[in-house]
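Thread: Newbie trying to understand structure tokens

Hi all, I'm a second-year student working on a class project, and my supervisor (Dr. K.) asked me to get a predicted structure for one chain before our next meeting. I've only ever worked with sequences, so writing a 3D structure as a token string is new to me. If someone could post the tokens and maybe explain what I'm looking at, I'd be very grateful. Here's the chain:
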Amino acid sequence: MLSPVTINNYGGTCNFVIPHWLQPFTDPAKTARPAARALRNLQEVLAYGHGGDRPYIHLVDGGISDNVAMRGVLDALEALEALHAVHQPTPLDRVRRIIVIVVNSLSSPKTNWDQSESPPGSLEILLRATGVPIDHYSYEAIELLKDTAARWQTMRRLRAAAAFAGNKDPSVADALNLPDIDVYAINVSFPALADKAELAYLNELPTTFVLPAEAVDRLRAAAGTIILSSHEFKRLLKDVGAAVVRAPTAAGSAAGAP
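---
Reply by user tm_fold:
Sure, no problem. This is what the structure looks like when written as tokens:
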């Protein structure tokens, strides 16, 4: 289960050229903050270009490095922000909305550790030693996305404010020169469920490739409930002037599932 996959690395034989919009990140001495993570990611990617030195690439489960697959999104947003700071054009300059749906199926089954004077055993601690950091990193990644969205929104409001209209200080203008993009961070996770009984049921589901049909149905229903009740999803619908349309039933009514 989750065995590594090995592929041949042909890096260096395909005439790859760094896109012009990534050029500002190739020189660490000239890279403005906050592009440190984007620069590191670019360096990691470019390292695969030396196929002669690294003829094989081993792909393993990415849970311990990025369990909710947010690193690529955060790197892209950071690169976009850094390019705006140095007045460089980007491929996303005409984009007005970015919608990120983060599916975080983290479950936290209860333990009875705090009900006993005896501490947990070595095996229990070892199992938690991998799970807890993964969960904390996932939480931080989602919160960082929300922070980015809030910062961009705040700067856009400041640029539109009457007090900024007469600004003559270029340093102030540069500080507010963030992407004019609305980012919607829709977090789909069990704690958002209002139904505590359903939350308790889903929270006890094991990590497995085989679930009973009832569990699959309840997971899918929970995801729909969480998305429809999400503040960010509602904000998105309001901003684009859209509404959720219910699927018609067999009788032609509008009382079916969305």
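A couple of things are worth pointing out once you decode it. The mean pLDDT is 84. Residues 62-240 form one domain. Feel free to ask follow-ups in this thread.
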